[in-house]
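User: Hey, quick favor. My workstation is busy. Could you predict this chain's structure for me?
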Amino acid sequence: MKNVCLLTLLFLLGVGATGCGTFMAHGIAQAPNRYPTWFAPAAPVTLAFNPKLLTNFIARYANVGPPPAKLRYRVVEPADYAFKISSTNWLEDDRKDYSFTFGATVPGPTNHWTASPRGTVFLLHGYALAQFSMLPWALQLSGDGWRCVLVDLRGHGKSTGNRVYFTVKEVSDMRQLLDHMTQAGQISGPVSVVGESMGAVLALRWKTVDPRITSVVAIAPYASLSNATMNIREEYAGWVPRWLVASGIEQLPCVLNIPADQFDPVNFMRAKPVSALFVAGELDKIAPPTEVRKLRDLALPDSPMILVPDATHESLTYYFSDLKAPAEAWLDGQKAIPQTKPQAALKN
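Assistant: No problem, here it is.
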């Protein structure tokens, strides 16, 4: 089951308790995996696959920090997983819901890439999710030759950490994880990153500070954390007063002891532009195409942007018919991105 990218019912804590902006900020910063599962909102996207698919890949751990945390990760080696996907969508209470069904053969028989991968790709999930949400990408890319790394970011899934820092400190976690895996002989270059939502923001930030990262695919990155949070409120928790959410966002820098301008990707992209493949969903109300385009416009000139028709924020990641070819071309170092539909790839 795929939750929304930000845990909207965090707002309930602020409303039900004191209404204080500081309390709200503490709720926003609290690690999502510290909330009970029943606390999550209804998922507009359902992922259907056998849970044993994930457990077939060994869970490993790496210590990172500060603040100290233990990250859980899995390595998916290149093999013939016979990955398949089917999808349906429907309207429910004027909201478009989706169901994606995935199938694969695990463990998969070796292929000609198994002994010599095309590279290593880190797959970074969105807020309040975990590595399971990027498993379909791991099976797809590994089947086509890449060694893939699924990660539970700090405070997510089975990783530890009491707070999330909205990529500001998580970028150090990822650099340390790459160090750890390199020392363990688990990396085959070149190293790339594919991320969704907050994971996409983390992927972009990582590339700005780590020359080992060669390619980034950023799926639905938000340009402003405050805008994304307000969009979540509009979409999923409109009954929560705007001033209350705004108060929590205003206090977040104090709670996390991080300067306010560090949270917004537009600032680090403006300071150090990098190239990336940007992906936006036409129906995305959380990180709409105009917001993704802000980041693309700050990126290096060779950065393309793909607009996927009919895709919402929550469903965009799984539009493989639109994303597979251009994403793999980009990861392979090709600058000419194939178009899967007329006008799908936008350069201007």
